[in-house]
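Technical note accompanying the year-one report. For the benefit of new consortium partners, we illustrate the data format agreed upon in the data management plan: each record pairs a sequence with a structure-token string. No post-processing was applied to the example shown here.
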Amino acid sequence: MSTLFDLSFFVTVPLWALMIFAPTWRWTRTIISSPWIVLAPLVVWAIVAVPVLGAMWSLVTSPSLDAITEAVADPAVLTALWAQIIAWDLFLGRWIYLDSRERHIHPLLMGPLLVGTILLSPIAFPVYLLVREFAARSQGASSAVAQAEPIGTQWP
């Protein structure tokens, strides 16, 4: 079970590396544009979740802290939960990456935010939304200035 637990993360590392270290490479956008990039951790999830599907079903249909605490003591349930978290973080990171590229947010700013998404996506996501808002306002102001100045106008 330990191998599958580790595998659920390690299969996503190359994808994260592309988004963080090669964000402007044309193949990065091509690869990351596919929502199927989350398939590998979901396959790990399926391998470990199918045998414990009954236990997991009862957790999601009538959740309680005690039941979840007891269930995660089972390595299969915990590994399935981990693989699901990893897949979700990758899906969220994919959206952040694609959105930031469309908005022309600098990769040096996005690299740490994507690392934050890997580590603590509930914090990194709202931070990205703030960065996104600031970038939109900043680009809006710079395009308004560019439109207001006639071409060829130079400041003294």
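Partners are asked to follow this layout when depositing records. The CA atoms of residues 89 and 121 lie 6 Å apart.
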